[in-house]
Every structure is written in structure tokens, then in C-alpha cells.
Design a protein that fits this description.
Elements lengths: L7 H18 L5 H18 L3 H23 L14 H25 L5 H19 L4 H19 L3 H29 L1
Helix pairs in contact: 1-2, 1-7, 2-3, 3-5, 4-5, 5-6, 6-7
């Protein structure tokens, strides 16, 4: 087994990432400022391990944290709290297509112009993470399904990169995605009852 090297940026990212997703599952608006801490730490860490698409994704996450913070507080009717909702069938197709287009575009760039490791896979994960994060900012229940799928692959990728703490974090995220989906589905049912 390889020797485990601790990276303080990864540790900070893991701790704040866990707390941030735990808060998101509970629809607690503090998920967004806590998420910003994770984003900053992971920006540096992903640069260090040459996962540039993931590094760039952190910049998007920073902007979406500010947007999500506002939306969750004031994005509902008459600037009230945003409720949980579902995507339309058309919107689901657009999410899948958007992720595919992002995968091809980012993958081509990182494969041809950088020394990125796993450029296409990393780009696909980043593209679909963009979709998942946007759905989370709008409190769309499908975000949890997308996160589950993405997290399964991230566990494998981070293990390959010997980012064992981050791989463990994403393994925990798998369970949190299931929990988030179940909690948000109950919320959605109670809204329609």
C-alpha cells in the first residue's frame, strides 16, 4: 500500500465539504458559506494533483455558492424561501445534453493543451457536476440523483490519484446523496399534499 501523504488543503476541503453537504441535505442555507471554504481549499489541492477541470469547477462552485445562497433565501414566490421542485422532462434532457457537450469541449481542451491526468473523465465529471450544482442552487430534487452517479466515479478517480481522503469524502457523499434525495422527496410530497 502506498504511503499516505497528508495535504492540509485536502483536509480542510474534506471537513468543510462534509459539513456543507450535510447542511444541503437538511436544506440549511449555511451550506453555501461553508461550501465556499471547501471550494477555496480544493482549488489549491486540485491544482497540486493536476486535475485542472476539477480546479476550474471550484471557481464555478464559488459563484454558485453566492447564487445559491441568495436563491435559497429569496428565490421563491415574492422573494420567499425557495421550495424543493422537480425538473420537467425537457429540462432533464437538457441537463444530460449539457453535460455531454461540456465533456466533449472540456475534454478536448484538457487533452490537447494541458498535462492533465484523465482529461476526458475529469472533464465529464466536471461538466456533470456543473449541472448538479446548478440543480442544487434551484432546489431541484434530481440534483441528488446526478450527484450520486458522479460521486461513484469520483471515488474511483480520487483513489487512482491517491487522494484517499477525498475518495473517502466522495464515498460518504454517496450516502448523503441518497439521504438528500429521500428527505427532499418527503418535502416535495408534503408540499403537494
Amino acid at each position: 500500500m502506498p504511503e499516505l501523504e497528508l495535504n492540509y488543503f485536502e483536509i480542510i476541503g474534506v471537513i468543510s465539504g462534509l459539513l456543507g453537504v450535510w447542511l444541503a441535505v437538511r436544506q440549511n442555507v449555511w451550506t453555501w458559506p461553508v461550501g465556499l471554504i471547501s471550494v477555496l481549499a480544493y482549488t489549491v489541492f486540485f491544482y497540486q494533483i493536476k486535475l485542472y477541470a476539477d480546479m476550474g469547477l471550484q471557481i464555478f462552485y464559488a459563484g454558485s455558492a453566492i447564487y445559491g445562497w441568495y436563491e435559497w433565501l429569496r428565490g421563491g414566490k415574492n422573494h420567499t424561501e425557495l421550495p424543493v421542485s422537480k425538473l420537467s422532462s425537457k429540462a432533464r434532457i437538457l441537463v444530460v445534453l449539457g453535460g455531454a457537450i461540456g465533456t466533449v469541449a472540456l475534454g478536448a481542451y484538457f487533452q490537447n493543451f494541458t498535462d492533465a491526468h484523465y482529461p476526458v473523465l475529469d472533464s465529464g465529471l466536471a461538466a456533470y457536476s456543473l449541472m448538479g450544482q446548478f440543480l442544487l442552487t434551484r432546489k431541484k430534487i434530481e440534483n441528488w440523483i446526478l450527484w450520486f452517479v458522479v460521486d461513484v466515479v469520483y471515488v474511483w478517480l480520487y483513489f487512482q490519484k491517491e487522494a484517499y481522503l477525498t475518495a473517502s469524502l466522495y464515498f460518504v457523499f454517496l450516502g448523503m446523496a441518497i439521504q438528500g434525495f429521500l428527505r427532499w422527496r418527503r418535502e416535495l410530497k408534503s408540499q403537494t399534499a
